[in-house]
Amino acid sequence: MKTRLRRWLFLTHRWLGIVACTFFAMWFVSGMVMMYVGYPRLTDAERLAHLPPLPAGAALLTPRQALDAAGIAGPLRELRLAAARGGQAVYLAVPDTGAAAPAGQRPPPRGTGVVVVDAATGQRLQGVDPALALASAAAYAAGAAGLQYAGSVDEDAFTHSRALDAHRPLHKVQLADADRTLLYISGRTGEVVRDATRTERLWNYAGAWIHWLYPLRGNVFDAYWADIVNGLSILGIAMALAGTVVGVLRWRFGRPYRSGSRSPYPGRMMRWHHVSGLLFALVTIAWIFSGLMSMNPWRIFDTGAPPLRTAALQGGPLAIGSEDAAPAALLAAAHAAVGDVRELRWARTLGQATVLAQGATGRPVLLGSRSAQPRRLDPDALRAAAAGLVDAPLARVERLTAYDLHYYDRAPHTMTGGGDKPLPVWRLVFDDAHATWVHLDPHTGAVLGRTDSGRRTSRWLFAMLHSWDWLPLLERRPLWDAVLIALSLGGTLLSVTGVVVGWRRLGFKLRPARTGSRTD
Question: Which among 206, 85, 243, 106 has a CA at the least distance from the CA of 161?
Fold first, then answer.
């Protein structure tokens, strides 16, 4: 029985390894690329830096005037003012339909249900043609010459993100800058929604694009992409576990083999595979397993927690009144704090309408929507309102002045980076069945994110195991780089030797058997 089990282990590792080691080698090499070049994205910081300043002296309609002219009544989910459509100042309004994102799912991407309104005339603006796409690209590139329209696309190698679904089809414009940047412009709003430099595009074919098996996206395999990734990961884990057991069984910890080696394999390639497997099997299994966890397979990290009761914090829906200040007054009030204002965003906090005025960099300034004067939120009132975000007692409020294991920043190109992670923030810890935490910006009253027991488990099993998002290591670069590259090279050696051994084995099995000596 023991001999039969051992034979099945050997056969499982041998034949699964022929397929799995090929993917392992690809994942290790592409993972090293992704340490330095990520999948193209347009971060909010990049978007704001490239937005033209709002014209302070222009005769722009008040929000209510513009919404009335466009025939938009009722409360809103979002309202922004930016020179985001070909350099033209527009209101981008999202009516509040009352529909919330299902529990455990992200809210709809920006652009869903958005209505674009000319801030000067109140006219609804619809459709984006090549001329407008070129104008938006020119505004993004600060009037640079040599722009070239590259057609439109529904989805390509650099736009598989579901966050872009609300903007499809996408117009492409090639800039003539040193980076040969390719811009993607929303076919719905005219905004630039993604940029991809030539370096990002070229390296991505050896990085994120192949690492995430994106060749299977946007074609007949798209519906099966998640299942394929999950299946390959499970197959790889099974192969690696079997190989680990086989490697330990075949290693002579006591008396060596007759050759003097503790590995029984005479061939150099097989011996390297055996030794590297013993050294790097654990990290290989951890990386393949954590890659599987990144897919949230079978939704194992979804706790079923209900959506946050944001109305408790907002104090009611976002309703724009006729007494709200004109953009000129808001821009003048914000200029001293943020310089040239790139975007105004209306919100409702603690029962009052407010405006966030955002410059090209730095944190926004909070203004009263009617007074157009800087406003500070009362901490006690904010805490009392925030306690209603979850239908459970608020256990405590922690004030974070530094990053920790659950609230931290990563480089913009990384998978978990690129978001706004200001400090200081509040962490609201609720005593509910889902162990909910909410991170809140006390400066603006904005909810920065929520996490619960399922998401924190995902953080350990994915971000910690896969990217080594451990602050003591991240804060000591290039130590983080050296550790991950050394382990990745070890995993690459294990995988490549496995590919060579498997190829030789497969070639031997497929080679036709030789017959006896030929007779005429």
Answer: 106
